[in-house]
Amino acid sequence: MSFWGLVAWAVLGLLGLVLQTVYVFKDPLATYHPRLKPLLLEACQLVGCQIQPLQKTDAVVIDYASVDAIHTDQAQEILAYGAQPSRWALQINLRNSDSVPVAMPWIELTLTDAQDTPVMRKVLNPVDWGAPAVVSPGEIIEQQLLLSLRKEDAAFMGYRLLTFYP
């Protein structure tokens, strides 16, 4: 093989590497360099991909959270007998602490007993309850989600919350 043949293969290999890198990092490129987004959208139409909102696990923080019993007449009766009510409200405030828009994360709610042992785990998608799919920089999303416990005998004393991307 001649010198120019090797140069041509090296240039093609380098071009392929650059294209693969752009394909893999298209979402961060579109987020951090908005001027490139139209070009990336055009390229994605050619190859059949999509530009998704950036998923940064440490960007969306939980500012406030509480799990409270829903007080209805029936819940009052249940509480009078010492059992756990079956309807609960999870109130949560999520804030984007980053300087770029990010995708809304999912929430994992783990109910724990007095020894902090998990009793029940529930995975929630706030978008299903009307939260926006993308959280702007500094935006605070306030959500109240109604929960029902399938295991009504599952008494819990505390809870843990975690945000994540599936």
Textual characterization of the structure:
The chain is of the alpha+beta class. It folds into two domains: 3-47, no CATH class; 60-164, Immunoglobulin-like, CATH 2.60.40. The chain is 29% helix and 33% strand. The chain contains four helices and eight strands; from the N terminus they run αααβαβββββββ. The chain has helices at 3-24, 26-32, 37-47, 73-80, and strands at residues 60-69, 87-96, 102-103, 106-112, 118-124, 134-135, 140-148, 158-164. A three-stranded antiparallel β-sheet has the order 1-2-7, with no helix packed on it. The longest helix has 22 residues, at 3-24.
Task: Give the topology, please.
Elements (H helix, E strand, L loop, with lengths): L2 H22 L1 H7 L4 H11 L12 E10 L3 H8 L6 E10 L5 E2 L2 E7 L5 E7 L9 E2 L4 E9 L9 E7 L2
Antiparallel strand pairs: 1-2, 2-7, 3-6, 4-5, 4-8
